[in-house]
Specification:
- The complex is a heterodimer.
- By secondary structure, chain A is mostly helical.
- In chain A, strand 2 and strand 3 form a beta hairpin.
- Among the domains of chain B are: 161 residues, no CATH class; 100 residues, no CATH class.
- The mean pLDDT of chain B is 88.
- In chain B, strand 15 and strand 16 form a beta hairpin.
- By secondary structure, chain B is an alpha+beta fold.
- The longest helix of chain B has 38 residues.
- Chain B contains nine helices and 16 strands.
- The chains are: A mainly alpha, B alpha+beta.
- Strand 1 of chain A pairs antiparallel with strand 3 of chain B, so a sheet runs across the interface.
Chain lengths: 129, 460
Amino acid sequence: MVIAIKEDSDIPIYLQIRNQIVQGIAQGKLLPGEHLPPVRALAEEIGINFMTVNKAYQLLKQEGYLISDRRKGARIREEFPLAGGLSAETFELLKQIVSEAQLRGVSAGEFCELCTKMYEEPGTVPRTK
Amino acid sequence: MTVSIIIGVSLYPVVLIMYFWMCWLAKADNGYCFGAVLPAQRKDEPEIAGIRKEFRRRMNVWLAVFLVLPVGAFFIPYISVSMTIWMTWLLFAIFSPLALFVGANRKVLRWKQEQGLAGTEPGISYTELKAAGRVRLVRPLPFLAALAAGFLPPLGAAFGFWKTAGSFPGFLEPLLWTIAALGFLFWGAAFWMDRLKTEVISMDSSVNLNYARAKKRIWKNMWLVILWMNTGWNGLLVLLAEAGRDPMAALLITSVLYSILTIAAVVFALVKVFRLNGRYRKERTLQEADSSDACWIGGLIYYNKKDRHVMVEQRAGGGSTLNMATPAGMGITLFSCLMLLCIPVMCVWMLLDEFTPIHLTVAEQTVEARHLKTDYEIPLSGITDVSVIEELPEWTKVNGTAMDGLEKGTFEIWHEGKCKVFLNPQNHLFLKLTTDDGVYYVGGYDDAETRQVYEALTAP
């Protein structure tokens, strides 16, 4: 799975990493139970401070995408807890995207079609409980 | 003349290596052209072909000039002058083709600007998540085995295991230790290259991982082969000494052989990397942003403050290079520049050494040997025997200077031991002074000066 870091982006690097790992899980590029590289190894590979990667991993852990222990390191959860909806942050983000779509003249139908397409993109969506 | 021929034969291959390497870089097909990003669909543009052709034409002229330039050095009788010419030639032979490369890089960038390909979009750096810390091919055991084997010859010499160890010429044992220690350098280089960031050439992880493994395997094997060759060199030196061969001749022949084989190993690895790039040409679907060209000065020097990597893959050449924006990268570069500066300093020193006359005088109850400074002060009370000799013994320099017109320093007469030397071997009269400190072979500016000192020493 390739992580693309935009150096001049307004989105902080830790969030870029977090977002792309979530996308990777959703698209089946990262499978349930798969191990993620150690924080230092990933930081060295990207060429950033290890604290940045650590922050991204902590966030993913808080959100329930990762589990980690001292011996085995971080890995993708086998099963994701059914939250019954989006997190508050994601809901805010979606509100912003919908507003932008409205302003750009994208109809509700077109928007839903776009969302459906994204949902049906090739890749395995991990099982939920 | 002989020394000049040896230097010439050793250095001439540099021109050929630089020529073939540069011509190879000119036609490299790895997503870059002279170190600038070039999309695959634009690589056959006539302007790009023109820049490549012009570069090759210039390299042909360069080759002709640099093959002819140092010929005069073969006929210069002064080693310091001849050496200065060779060293100046060597520096230009290494750096001038790089200047031509930089010129070609600028032309490509200008063309990209004209075509609107210069790129202002923010740089994106791609990282293969699954490769982080996982593509490591340098295992300690094979390297440790080669390194340990390299230390056997000097250890054998130190503990008197070799039957000739006691009569080794003075330079041999430290040389064996030095060669063995070189192994750490090769292991370090292998380790460092193994930790280079995995190049991301595709969105497909398996392509990236296979490409990275194949490439790192080539470099790992190259360093391991070089390390074993280093070990072999040490072993060969001891074997030749055991066989009773002249150690100086053995050193000369084995070092030439070692240099040729090392170059061959590097060239072989580069050929394999280029072939690998060729095999992965179709899979290479991901390219750096055009704006990243700004981080590559002249397409050769990498300077990116936002990248914490000290070493990165080279755009041109297939190896790796330093990120000059990191303190380590800057430090290593400064150190290398200082080392390069040593070459002209060494040439000036050699010129002074060769053209400053030597003088031998007796004053204030001491024999004083003066050259650039006072080299030796031998108290008359310490001299037990003085004799005039007309023929010098066969000796090898341990340290100091050995030129056609000057021999100075510590020398070793094989099977006899070390002695101090201060003379011009072109003269005909020399003094052998046996002292409490050892034996001195000395001489004056000319035979008259030597005789004058002899008379002063033997006067009642």
